[in-house]
Amino acid sequence: GLRAVSSLLSACAWQSHQPRVSWSCGEGPDSRQPTCRGRPAVDLGTGTNSLGRQMCRILPSSRRASAFGAIMSTEPIPVDALTAEHYVWGNVCDGWHLLKGKDLSVIQERVPPGAGETRHFHSRARQFFFVLSGTATIEFNETAVEFGPGKGLHVPPGTEHRFSNRSSEAVVFLVISSPTTAGDRTDVIS
Q1: Gap between the Cα atoms of 42 and 59, Å rounded
Q2: Which residues contact 71 (CB under 8 A, 6 or more apart)?
């Protein structure tokens, strides 16, 4: 069940810098295969978790990276900020691709106090911002909307907007875009 999947991810998905990976050797020189709990696994290299700790990422081989970089599976496996692809934007903001597809993107982001993005719009993509913790502000042409945990805001295609954090604590939120915003962003210069 869910508890077993959670245990597997805890033990296998992100391990400390010295990962507990065993290697099984086959007949040829290229047959060394990492294993996790005795099952074949894929070593995705090192990364940094949300706490800034250097980690080695090991995934069971039943999960594979898709052409878009998202982790796909033949079995339902939960994804979170520890297992998702991480990126940094604006030098201080974090993002995690929870779902990365051409038709739908789900990203968890963390924006510290005083940070924000450049005013922009998307020609094709509609977005929905949903706050998990903290307080978000989305600025439009002549208005700004502030909203907190458990609240969301829809931004239709073609709408100029700017996400910012005017509060004294970090804001963590989901941004859901359909289709993806990749290649569909026009910055607005004032």
Answers
A1: 5
A2: 59, 63, 64, 65, 77, 79, 83, 84
Contact 107, 175 (CB under 8 A): yes
33-36 vs 39-48, strand pairing mode:
antiparallel
**Is 176 in contact with 105 (CB distance < 8 Å)?**
yes
pLDDT tens digit sequence for 17-72: 333 333 333 333 444 444 444 444 444 444 444 444 433 444 444 444 443 444 45
Q: Which residues pair with 181 in a beta bridge?
A: none
Beta strand ranges found along the chain (DSSP E)? 14-16, 22-24, 33-36, 39-48, 54-60, 63-65, 71-73, 85-89, 93-100, 105-111, 120-121, 126-133, 136-139, 144-147, 152-155, 162-164, 171-178, 186-187
Q: Are 62 and 73 in contact (CB under 8 A)?
A: yes
How many Cα atoms are found within 13 Å in the side-chain-facing hemisphere of 118?
11
H runs (alpha helix) in the chain: 2-8
pTM of the model: 0.64
* CA–CA dist 49, 9 (Å, integer): 14
Q: What is residue 17's predicted lDDT score, i.e. its pLDDT?
A: 33
